Amino acid sequence: MAKTRAMDHKCPACGAPLLYVTKLAKWKCGYCDSEYTLDDLIKLGVVKEETEEPKKEVKKEENVSYDTYLCKDCGAEIIADENTVSTFCLYCGNTAILKNKLSGEFKPDKLIPFKVVKEDAINAFKALKKGRPLLPKDFVSEKNIEKITGLYVPFWLYDITYFGGVTAKGTKVTSWTSGDTHYTKTDTYRVERELSVGYNLVPVDGSEKFADDIMTTIEPFDYRGLVDYNHAYLSGFLAEKYDVSKEKAYEIAKKRSYNSTLNEARSSMRGYSTVNITGNTLKDNLRKTQYALLPVFMVNVKYKDKYYLFAMNGQTGEFVGNMPISVGRALAYAAGIFAGIVAFIIIASLVIFLLGGGKL
Prior knowledge:
Elements: E1 4-5, E2 18-21, E3 26-29, E4 35-36, H1 38-43, E5 66-70, E6 77-81, E7 84-88, E8 95-97, E9 110-111, H2 118-126, E10 145-178, E11 181-205, H3 212-217, E12 227-228, E13 238-240, H4 246-267, E14 274-280, E15 283-303, E16 306-313, E17 319-321, H5 327-355
Parallel strand pairs: 1-5, 9-15, 10-13
Antiparallel strand pairs: 2-3, 3-4, 5-6, 7-8, 7-13, 9-12, 10-11, 10-14, 10-15, 15-16, 16-17
């Protein structure tokens, strides 16, 4: 069976590989330093303007499969799993874009280009020591970083409207004193609201590889930065295609917007001591669905034979992850607090003793 050739992008001036440079928002040749915008590359025929393709449904196989490609630069074999759409040749290091995996239903509608660079992720990791007295001192050493990967993660984006009625039980509590008697009065009300709330670009992680809690924590992205998808943006980065269907992801988006709608209704019920939602007739209306690739730096850290994963929003720089706690520093911190409390009690007792004329 013939192998498909992986893609890369060549400099029109010298033929060397082009990479997307986040700080410039341009493509730059590492050999002759020529710089190009996306319009430049399209006009020069280096990349093609993306066209609309029919979104054919593709059934997901239960077993993970691997495909083999040939590097366009050195001819070496590149092996990628079924969800990888942009990777690197292990021999020459050039970007390998597997464009045949980005067709049909897997062709993204939008993309947010990277705005931060690898050094920003390193600096954010080092800055974790600030304000975290229980973090081991040597944890944030750069030598503990095993790997930093710039990755385009697949996301589903939904425009949703919730509409309908919400009912609640509200109470108003008043109290007063007459003579020696204290009175409390509780009035109960039926509270109703009719509302229509629209949400734009509700994001849901479209890959099962990445922990949903981490992907949710690095939100929000600034969706004003969305651009029409072009595979040229993948140069220099890894990328994945979705393996969570838009129908399954929509159930998550629907739940998030449903809870937000209930909170919106509850916040409008002002003037009550308590408010408890008792029922609703809310219905959802999916107005639009988009498939986008969003930029994330994944930082893998190895510390004392354990691995810790951090993620940085590749657009805003938001940095999150799980961190270890130094038992020794925690005990010392607790001991310091205990010693401070004991010292305060002793001083307070001495002051009371002296103010009492030195008599027990």
